[in-house]
Write a structure and sequence with these properties.
The protein has one helix spanning 29-76. The protein is mostly helical. The chain is elongated. The mean pLDDT is 85.
């Protein structure tokens, strides 16, 4: 299966503002609050994901430690029921 390319699309595009002389208006209070809420939501999602990954890694480490301990007991001849 071959990949089709679009030769009419340039690899680098130059971005030009359509209205360079118009000054940007400052955002309204509602827009600022909305952006803050969105940013907080994204940060919380990232934090939760990082926390979940840390918990998963810690759980895996505990399981590996327990398995190594059990294997050491078996090698030493201790009975495990």
């Amino acid at each position: 299966m071959s990949v089709q390319t679009r030769p009419d699309t340039p690899l680098t595009t130059t971005t030009t503002s359509t209205t360079p002389d118009v000054p940007r208006r400052s955002p309204t209070a509602a827009e600022v609050r909305s952006a803050d809420r969105r940013r907080r939501k994204e940060l919380r999602r990232e934090r939760d994901l990082e926390r979940a990954l840390r918990r998963q890694a810690a759980r895996r480490a505990l399981q590996e430690r327990d398995l190594a301990y059990q294997q050491a007991l078996v090698r030493s001849g201790v009975y495990i029921r």
